[in-house]
Design the sequence.
């Protein structure tokens, strides 16, 4: 295997990000999608992230939220006020998000009837796969090593955890958030089958007719 020098690796990353951003701006297989996207309903699911130390997770989490067309993302400011959105791959142009105070935000969501679920390993945690997901919901997550802080756990209705079958003791925060989002999203789709993906390729995967089947027959 060939070792790639750090400067070259960074150059490749910048080029890939630029290419991904340009690709994210295109919707050639879905004419009119850019013009109508903002009017599409969003899944009533919010992501609330605490300080994570590994700020590279910020961009990836926003990318997950936009891929599922979630309602909103709130990220707590890191202690050194540093953030990293490099992994967002163009999603910030479409995804609602902010850096703010999680406790006040969760209290507000609770008052609005949101089910607040902490992604956290404890004796009280339920299996994420068998948990009774309902929407609207807020998924709360924290640092990979310690999970969700006690004072924030007090604002959560439930805690869920992902069973691991290997020797590793945890997943990357972004990976865990993606798994939790999939379960919450599946529950919402089953309760609201009229909630459709934006792109025609994803619609076909779910057996939903494309908006412009004649224009997309070759995709």
Sequence:
């Amino acid at each position: 295997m060939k070792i790639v020098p750090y400067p070259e690796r960074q150059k490749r990353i910048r080029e890939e990000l630029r290419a991904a951003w340009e690709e994210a701006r295109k919707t050639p297989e879905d004419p009119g999608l850019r013009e109508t996207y903002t009017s599409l309903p969003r899944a009533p699911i919010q992501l609330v992230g605490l300080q994570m130390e590994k700020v590279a997770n910020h961009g990836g989490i926003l990318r997950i939220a936009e891929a599922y067309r979630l309602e909103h993302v709130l990220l707590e400011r890191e202690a050194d006020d540093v953030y990293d959105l490099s992994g967002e791959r163009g999603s910030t142009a479409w995804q609602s998000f902010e850096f703010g105070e999680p406790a006040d935000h969760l209290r507000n969501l609770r008052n609005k009837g949101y089910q607040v679920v902490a992604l956290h390993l404890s004796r009280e945690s339920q299996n994420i796969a068998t948990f009774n997901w309902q929407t609207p919901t807020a998924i709360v997550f924290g640092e990979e090593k310690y999970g969700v802080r006690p004072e924030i756990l007090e604002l959560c209705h439930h805690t869920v955890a992902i069973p691991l079958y290997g020797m590793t003791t945890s997943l990357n925060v972004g990976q865990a958030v993606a798994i939790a989002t999939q379960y919450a999203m599946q529950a919402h789709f089953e309760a609201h089958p009229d909630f459709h993906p934006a792109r025609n390729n994803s619609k076909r995967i779910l057996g939903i007719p494309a908006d412009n089947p004649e224009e997309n027959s070759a995709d």
About this structure: Residues 54 and 114 are 28 Å apart (CA to CA).
